[in-house]
């Protein structure tokens, strides 16, 4: 069993296609296939079921692949230690960010991070939580910036700060007469929501204990964008819930439509997440420090009394 064979094994698991895996490993398909076959013969088991398209690992193969990822990652950590000592923080940082954080948090820190670490190439993709976690496990991402806890034993969470939920209400909404709102005071039929798949939607539904019901207007609109939800509230009626960072840059007129929750305010935990056997430790530590340095102080100093979990 060799490190190269294990790397080929992981590539096939990631791309579920022998030709693509060979291309990513910069070898021919016959070379990759032959090495994996040798590994299977040495182990005396079949790691991949080649009768299925796309190719998939067998049940025992899944367990072997988990251990292979750990073994390859531990070996690469040796190379990483030497590289950081010799060259400093360099290389590529592939980051996935959820859409309810990306437009509000990334601009706060990314310019200074790039200037401070000019030898790091940052690649950022917006995607929902489930996709980020899947790509972390397949080593297609180095780090995720999302909302936790995830309750996944293969993922390491690094909490950064706690962001409050706020209400955003049309001026004609009955709750706009109040200075603060409660979850119990919200009529679920008045809520505009994000699409399925967004963790923020899940948290809002949990917070408001909303069951499916009929809206009070002749329009049913679920969006993938918080900015769209804001515009719907402004031009139609009803209300939505928003994360705190998304209202920081609103005009004074629009800030008048915001209503905070009574204390203790419901919060969401924002974290960096990595695979348990993650690499690029120094780079991710630098990213963590840069994010924390640029987050408004009120978010960093909160006591997380009422964190809304993700279900």
Automatic annotation (TrEMBL):
GO terms for cellular component: cytosol. InterPro entries: HTH-type_LysR_regulators, LysR_HTH_N, LysR_subst-bd, WH-like_DNA-bd_sf, WH_DNA-bd_sf. The keyword Transmembrane helix does not apply. Gene3D superfamilies: Periplasmic binding protein-like II, Winged helix-like DNA-binding domain superfamily/Winged helix DNA-binding domain. Residues 1-58 form the HTH lysR-type domain. Keywords: DNA-binding, Transcription, Transcription regulation. One of its GO terms (molecular function) is DNA-binding transcription factor activity. The keyword Transcription regulation applies. Belongs to the LysR transcriptional regulatory family. This is Transcriptional regulator. It comes from Rufibacter tibetensis.
């Amino acid at each position: 069993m060799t490190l190269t064979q294990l790397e080929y094994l992981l590539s096939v698991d990631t791309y579920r296609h022998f030709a693509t895996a060979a291309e990513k490993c910069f070898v021919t398909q016959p070379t990759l296939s032959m090495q994996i076959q040798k590994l299977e013969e040495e182990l005396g088991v079949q790691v991949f079921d080649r009768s299925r398209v796309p190719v998939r690992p067998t049940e025992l193969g899944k367990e072997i692949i988990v251990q292979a990822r750990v073994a390859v990652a531990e070996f690469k950590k040796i190379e990483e230690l030497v590289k950081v000592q010799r060259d400093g923080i360099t290389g590529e940082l592939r980051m996935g960010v959820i859409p309810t954080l990306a437009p509000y948090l990334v601009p706060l820190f990314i310019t200074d991070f790039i200037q401070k670490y000019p030898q790091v190439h940052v690649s950022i993709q917006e995607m929902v939580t489930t996709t980020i976690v899947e790509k972390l496990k397949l080593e297609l991402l180095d780090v995720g910036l999302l909302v936790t806890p995830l309750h996944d034993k293969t993922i390491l969470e690094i909490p950064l700060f706690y962001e409050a939920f706020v209400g955003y209400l049309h001026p004609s909404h009955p709750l706009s007469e109040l200075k603060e709102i409660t979850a119990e005071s919200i009529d679920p039929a008045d809520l505009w929501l994000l699409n399925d798949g967004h963790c923020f939607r899940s948290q809002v539904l949990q917070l408001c204990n909303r069951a499916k019901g009929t809206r009070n207007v002749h329009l049913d609109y679920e969006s993938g964008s918080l900015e769209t939800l804001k515009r719907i509230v402004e031009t139609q009626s009803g209300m939505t819930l928003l994360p705190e960072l998304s209202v920081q840059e609103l005009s004074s007129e629009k800030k008048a439509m915001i209503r905070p929750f009574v204390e203790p305010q419901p919060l969401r935990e924002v974290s960096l997440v990595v695979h348990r056997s993650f690499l690029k430790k120094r780079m991710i530590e630098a990213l963590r420090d840069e994010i924390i340095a640029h987050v408004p102080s009120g978010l960093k100093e909160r006591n997380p009394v009422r964190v809304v979990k993700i279900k």
